[in-house]
Amino acid sequence: MLSSCKSSSYLRKTELTDLKASKTLKKTYLRIRNMSRKEIALGHQDATAYGVVWKHDGSGTLDRSDIDDVTGKFPAVYGFDIGHIELGNTHNLDSVPFDLMRKLIVKAHENGGIVTLSWHADNPVSGGSSWDTVPAVSQILKGGNFRKRYEGWMEKVALFIRSLKDAHGQPVPVVFRPFHEMNGSWFWWGAGNCSINDYVQLWRETVNLLRYEHKVHNVLYAYSPNTLNEKEEYLRFYPGDDFVDILGIDIYNHSGDDIYREALRNDIAVMRAFAASRDKPFALTETGNIQRGHPRWWTEVLYPAVKNSGIAWLLVWRNHSPEHFFAPYPEDPLADDFRMFGEHKDILFLKDIREIGFEPRPDFTRQPGK
Fold first, then answer.
1. Which tens digit of pLDDT belongs to each residue from 196-208?
2. Which residues pair with 44 in a beta bridge?
3. CA 60 to CA 194: how far, in whole Å?
4. CATH assignment of 24-353?
5. CB 3.0 to 4.6 Å from 317: which of 154, 233, 321, 326, for a disulfide?
6. DSSP helix/strand/coil, 223
7. Nearest CA among 261, 263, 276, 188 for reference residue 233
């Protein structure tokens, strides 16, 4: 693929942190760069695994998502979480069977979608959940008392990612987003529960284990802090350009629409400037509305704050129940507003990103917001 490139700038833009990246991974990275010109791909966590009132039966015959139920279109980006793969469990922490997850990931890729993986790993020292803040990071670094346990965990992560193959036996590319929201204190890898230096070392050792020990070459690595308390926070935990392919940020509407809008505009601007200085694409890697009440939240709160922001995608979190959901479903009072949100030409669904190729796009012809 690289031998056909005509410009040095194009060659530079295909360089990934993994020098042995698979061809499919390089193509996915170029698609992501091209998506981010002025368009935003729509993503949903566990989109095809379950919805508010349904669950995949595992038979392979169910092809459904809540977003498709509302709009007649599937999302462009598919988020999955591999938490509890490290334990050797058959299901992840949200009760999705890993065998089913594998099938859904492969199908999403073969249909033209982008796949992202998060990892809510249990605390390797205490045995508690990701939210158990017993200090653990220093214990799983090289020389730590729990290093062998962590190396065993990484072997299981690598086996799962390497098992992702399409119908032709080619590796399925994924965006891997471990140890996210590190500037918050709620995870065992978060601020206050480990030093910044130890966090950076954990990230680097994790990437090196996958690349060199386990020969995993179908992964783009994404770094995603939570809502920033100050702009300097974005850089503070950064593990370095050689260990990150995509920049992200997680911002939820916890404290009301006005504060959420401001956080989106300010924090995405910080991320955008940081990304520009490093020539990396960036995304809103998690978002969602917790403070419900605005009848046109999608079109009047979220959309104005993200349009023309440069993010390659935005991913809303999972639909667990009528009391806990982030994407619309048919009975959601905001379903009509979401349909209007999805009618903006710069909001991309699955069928839209199928049209995005791998060649550089010097110009953008679609008019955003129309």
1. 999 999 999 999 9
2. 78, 316
3. 42
4. 3.20.20.80
5. 326
6. strand
7. 263
Structure token digits, residue 260: 């959420």
C-alpha–C-alpha distance, residues 299 and 297, integer Å: 6
Token pair, residue 292, equals 């419900």
3-state secondary structure of 332: coil
* Helix, strand, coil percentages in the chain from 3-state DSSP, rounded to 5: 35, 15, 50
Q: Which residues contact 258 (CB under 8 A, 6 or more apart)?
A: none
> In the structure encoding, which two tokens stand for residue 288, read together?
């969602």
DSSP string, 132-146: --S--HHHHSTT-TT
Parallel, antiparallel, or unpaired for β 282-289 and 246-253? parallel
Tokens of 224: 């995603």
pTM of the model: 0.93
pLDDT reported for residue 14: 52
CA atoms within 13 A on the CB side of 348: 30
Radius of gyration of the chain, Cα coordinates, nearest whole angstrom = 19
Q: Does the pLDDT value for residue 180 go beyond 90? A: yes
Q: Pairing relation of β-strands 219-223 and 313-316?
A: unpaired
